[in-house]
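Working notes for the structural subgroup meeting. M.R. asked for a predicted model of this chain before we commit to crystallization trials. I am recording the input and output together here so anyone reviewing the notebook later can reproduce the run.

Input as submitted:
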Amino acid sequence: MSTSTSPLDNDTGRLDGASRTRIFTVLAVIVLFSEIAPMQYTIVAAALQKIAPTFPGVGANINWAIIVFGLIGAAASPLIGKMSDVWGKKRMFLICGALFVIGCVLDATTSNWGVFLFGRCLQATAIATAVIAYGLIRDLLPRTMVPLGLGITATGLGVSSIAGPLLGGFLVDNYSWRAIFWCLAGFTVLMFPLVWLIVPESELRVTERIDLGGAALLSGGAALTLIYVDKGHDWGWARPTTLAWLIAGLSLLVLFVVVEKRVSTPIMDMTLLFHPRVTLVLAGALFASLQIGIVSYAIAYMAQSPDEATVTAGVHHGVLADVSALTGQPLPPEAVQVTLDPGYTYGSGYTLLEFAVRIALLGAVVTMICGALAGLLAGRIGARIPLIAALSIFAASGVAFAVLPHTTTAFLVVNSFLSIGFGFYYACMPILMVEAVPQEQQGISLGMLGVMQSMGVAVGLAIVTAFLHANGMRALISVGGEPTPPTPLPDLFGDHGYELGFWVCAAASTVALVLAGIMRHGRTPATGGIAH
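Returned structure, recorded in C-alpha cell form:
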C-alpha cells in the first residue's frame, strides 16, 4: 500500500491558519457533542433497577434497554461512518443528534415497553457520533494536533465520565428515571446551535455510491452475532434455536467478505481490512473490551448491593412476618435461622450517587487526564507503547480485582489504577486506526473499530452473566429447627462468580497485550493520518 499523502488530504478544510483559541473551541464542541452516547450509557446502565418497576412484565429482559443500545449502535456505526465520508461529517453529526433527541423524548414519555425499546434504538445512533468526531478531528485539526485531539475525544471533557454519574445519581435519587432522558435531550438540544455555528463542515467527500448491500450484510451479521452473545445464557447456548442466531450472523459476515471482494465500490476495501495493521487493532479491541464490559458492570453492581448481614436480616424479618400473618401468632426471632449459600463478602448498599462519588469519580478524572496524555505521547513516541502500558494495566487490574478483598477501598484503588489504562487505551485505539488507513476509508474503518469494541463488551457481559448465574445466591431457612426449601435470591451472587469474571479480564487483556507486542505500526510518532 502506498504511504504517500492522499490527494484528498489538502482539500478537507483543515484549520491550519486558525488561532489556537479557534482550534480548541472547535475541538471542545466536537468532544462535548460526542459525549452524549457514553453519558447516557453511564447513567442508564446504573439506573436499570429504578426503570424496571415501570415495566413489570419485562422481568430480566430489562437488560434489553442496554443490549439494544449497543446492538443497534454497533451495527449502524460502520454505515453511518461511511455516510459521513460520502455526505458530510457535520451533517451526519447533527442527524445522529436529532435521532438521539427523538429517542430520549419517546423514552421520557412512554410506559410501553416496545416504544421504550424503539426510543433506545433511535438513541443508539449517537454511538456513531464518536466515529464521526474522529473523522472531523482528522479532517479539521492541524496535523500536529490530531493525536492530542483524538486522545481528548476518546476520553471526553468530563461531561460523561464525571458529570454524568453525579447528575444521573442526583436525578434518579431525587426525581424519576424519566428525568434522565429529559436531561439528555436538553443537553443535546443546547449543543445543536454550537455545532452548527462553530464546527466547520469537512470538505472531504468520497465520490462513490454507498454499497447498501454490503452495509446490510455487515450490520446484520454483527447484530445477529451480538444477539447470540447477549442472550445465549438466557436462551441456552447450545439450543438449536439459539445457535441459529450465531450461525446466521457469522454466515452474513462471511458473505460480506465474499461479496465485498467482488463489487466495484465496496463499503470497505477487503485488502485493507485484512492488512495486519488493521486486523491487529481490531482483534486487540475485541479482547481488551472484555475488561470494559466485565469491570464496569461488576464493580457498580457489587457496590450498590446490600451487604450479607443486611440481606440476612431482611430475609429473617420477612419470614417472621409471613409466619405471623399465616398463623396469627408472633414467632420468637430465635426460632428462625437464616444463612446464605454460598455467601458473599462484597456489598456497600450505595445509591447510584454514592457509588459515583465514592468510587467512580476519581477514576473518571484519571481517565480524562490520561486520554489527553496518551494523545501527546502518541505524537512523540507513537501509540503502540502507550497501548502496551494500558493493556499491562488491564491485566494487572484483573488479577487485583480477583484476589483482593471486595471492599470499597479496594475498588477505589484498583479502579483508579485501571483508569490510567482506560485513558491510554481509549486514546490509542482510534489513533492507531487513523494511522493505519487512507483518509477516504476512515469512516468505515473507525466504524469497524466500534463494532469490535461493542462485541468485546457484549462478550464480557455474557461471560460474567454466565458465571454469576452459576453462583446464584440462596437463602437457607430453618423455622423451629425444621429446614424449608432453599429460597433463591435472584439479584445476588457469590464472590466466585465475580472472581471468575475478573480472571477472564486478566486473560483477555493478556491476549490483547500479545497482539500489541507484535504490532508493527504505531512505533513511530503519530502523523495525524498522512502515513497512508
